[in-house]
Specification:
Blueprint (H helix, E strand, L loop, with lengths): L1 H12 L4 E4 L2 E4 L4 E4 L10 H4 L3 E5 L3 H8 L10 H11 L4 H12 L4 E2 L7 E2 L11 H18 L2 E4 L7 H6 L9 E4 L17 H13 L4 E5 L11 H13 L3 E5 L9 H9 L3 E2 L6 H6 L3 E6 L3 H8 L5 E3 L6 H11 L3 E3 L11 E4 L2 E4 L4 H15 L2 H21 L4 H12 L5
Parallel strand pairs: 3-4, 4-7, 7-8, 9-10, 9-12, 10-11, 12-13, 13-14
Antiparallel strand pairs: 1-2, 5-6, 15-16
Helix pairs in contact: 4-5, 4-6, 5-6, 9-14
Protein name: UDP-glycosyltransferase 73C3 [Arabidopsis thaliana]
GO molecular function, one term: UDP-glucosyltransferase activity
InterPro entries: UDP_glucos_trans
Length: 422
């Protein structure tokens, strides 16, 4: 990738001063904005292109401090650093070695990120996916390399949503950075109008006509994540509770990893309880008045799409920024719930919440009971309170993206810092 980028950027810099792109005049590049997850592919050839490099973080500020480790949080070497050392050593069989290291070394030590409640180290990955330890062994040193070599980073988050995390990020790492908070990259209105003839729209309309507002749970894990086959029985146990509580549900099976018993799905479809589309117009679904809560893995895009539409959430997080997003939205802002009894791997031990240890039993029945309790709360005063909270938080985020809002001001400051805006 680095070789390809070097060839491309040098070619771009050799183009005429003004190029035409879709009929619009475009100058040659004057700055490189690179996603921190790319790991610095533009840095290796900086002597060739000579352009300043700026970091881009498409998530909340708190999530970067959980992945890259705030320098003041813990003097001990934590799990991602151990995986990074393993990755730097190279050698054969990194996949198995990284997995073995993670399972052996991840611990219950408390992680304290500014602006977040404390949590156990193993809660960084609430679902154990075998691919993740070798991925982190590869990515962590690249992420650190980026943070060591950029002095400006754009964050796709709203300052008012995480003021403590956002305020501390500038001095969080060994090299100081200047952060710019431009707001989440979210469509405030659905880019695609709902198709009145689609089975999903008809399902929602029928539920609204028969049962009224807030009568459907929308469930989706995105296009990348899905509970592993060994969690299939927990997944079905959780979803079985939805019609028992008087709701219907839409379960989007967008991920190529989606595996769930067909006879189980057919039974719910025939009973009129559910529909299982392979693709959904997610923003249009979230805007439908029949939607009650959104059951999600908690990726930043999905979370902010629900947030700006005032839809509270039920989180089933996996890795990366997802556990952090759950903490921020469900725990700090009380705009949803997190399923704890569905956890796997080392995280299927105990969770640290509000100074108390919660045992993760890990059985289907425990997951079923937890979902039953959550659904009961969504129908009562707690659910009403969460809906008020998320509508108010939604307004904060939307206002930040409006002219003169904090995100708009942050974008202008970023443009001025690059010399693109006077």
């Amino acid at each position: 990738m680095e070789r390809s980028f070097k060839s491309w950027i040098i070619n771009e810099l050799q183009q005429p001063t003004i190029a035409q792109v879709e009929g619009q005049p475009i100058n040659t590049p004057s700055v490189i904005i690179e996603d921190l997850f790319n790991g610095g592919m533009s840095l290796g050839c900086k002597d060739d292109h000579g352009l300043p490099v700026v970091g881009w973080w498409g998530f909340a500020a708190a999530s970067l401090m959980t992945l890259a480790k705030h320098k003041e949080l813990c003097r001990e070497t934590w799990i991602y650093e151990k995986l990074a050392l393993l990755g730097a050593q190279g050698g054969d069989d990194l996949f198995n070695k990284a997995g073995e290291t993670y399972l052996k070394e991840v611990s219950d030590r408390l992680v304290r990120v500014p602006g977040l409640p404390a949590f156990h180290e193993w809660e960084l990955s609430t679902q154990y996916l075998p691919l993740i330890p070798p991925f982190m062994a590869f990515m962590t040193p690249r992420l650190k390399n980026m943070l060591d070599h950029v002095d400006k980073v754009v964050f796709c988050t709203t300052f008012e949503m995480e003021p403590i995390s956002a305020s501390s990020i500038s001095s969080a790492f060994e090299s100081p950075i200047t952060p710019f908070f431009t707001g989440p990259s979210v469509d405030l209105t659905s880019p695609h109008q709902p198709d009145p003839e689609s089975p999903v729209t008809q399902f929602l309309d029928r539920a609204y006509t028969e049962n009224g507002a807030h009568s459907v749970i929308y469930a989706a894990f995105g296009t990348t994540f899905f509970p592993l086959p060994e969690s299939a029985s927990k997944l079905m146990a959780v979803l079985d509770e939805i019609p028992k509580a008087g709701f219907r549900f839409i379960f989007a099976l967008s991920s190529p990893h989606a595996q769930i018993d067909k006879s189980w799905m057919d039974a719910h479809v025939q009973a009129g309880n559910a529909i299982f589309p392979e693709w959904t117009n997610q923003t249009a679904i979230l805007e439908h008045p029949a939607i009650h809560y959104f059951l999600s893995h908690g990726g930043w895009n999905s979370s902010t799409e629900a947030l700006v539409r005032g839809v509270p959430m039920i989180f089933w997080p996996f890795i990366g920024d997802q556990p952090t997003n759950s903490l921020q939205i469900a725990t700090i802002h009380d705009c949803g719930f997190e399923l704890l009894q569905v956890r796997t791997g080392p995280a299927q031990s105990k969770a640290y919440r509000n100074g108390a240890e919660i045992e993760i039993v890990g059985t289907d029945e425990a997951a079923r009971e937890e979902m039953r309790s959550i659904l009961a709360m969504t129908k009562g005063p707690r659910g009403e309170h969460q809906r008020v909270n998320i509508k108010l938080l939604s307004r904060v985020v939307i206002d930040s993206l409006a002219p003169g809002g904090s995100g708009d001001v942050g974008l202008e400051k970023f443009g001025k810092a690059l010399g693109l805006v006077r």
